[in-house]
């Protein structure tokens, strides 16, 4: 992985999915038994497949869209899948069109494209999703 800048200190309280969802207080992961420090939206399906991560962001008002290009009035996320078809990472697009990721329990980083993370550690981008920003030309329910 090349071409990124570190934008935070290490923090074990949250993970990449939480970061993409702008929650810095929990790790977002399905655990079969309630576990302190973990969160999973009740509307989301449970499991490890990429459709599970899609359902998480659908619960937050996102819809599948085409491409990583910056769209005025929308927030975007990129959802990654590993070689086995399991979700492996989530990144979010910033206001300037760059992308932001949380690297496990390590730092947050800023990277130019979502493909900067593609490879054996983080998988490949499978889906892009978007939702209208608050106060934009379209309305959306906030989670």
Structure description:
The protein contains 2 helices and 9 strands. The protein has helices at residues 16-20, 50-59; strands at residues 4-6, 27-28, 38-39, 63-65, 74-81, 87-93, 99-102, 108-111, 124-132. The chain is mainly beta and 143 residues long. The strands form 2 sheets. The chain has a 7-stranded antiparallel beta sheet with strand order 1-8-7-6-5-9-4. Strands 2-3 form a two-stranded parallel sheet. 10% of the residues lie in helices and 29% in strands. It has one domain (4-132). Mean pLDDT is 91; it is low at 138-143. Strand 5 and strand 6 (87-93) form a beta hairpin.
Can you tell me the number of structural domains? 1
Number of helices: 2
Sheet-strand content, in percent, reads: 25-35%
Terminal-residue CA separation: 32 Å
User: Helices and strands: which structural class?
Assistant: mainly beta
In short:
With 143 residues, the protein is mainly β. It contains 2 helices and 9 strands.
Provide key terms for this protein:
143 residues, mainly beta, seven-stranded antiparallel β-sheet, two-stranded parallel sheet, 2 helices, globular, disordered C terminus
Give a topology summary.
Layout: E1 4-6, H1 16-20, E2 27-28, E3 38-39, H2 50-59, E4 63-65, E5 74-81, E6 87-93, E7 99-102, E8 108-111, E9 124-132
Parallel strand pairs: 2-3
Antiparallel strand pairs: 1-8, 4-9, 5-6, 5-9, 6-7, 7-8
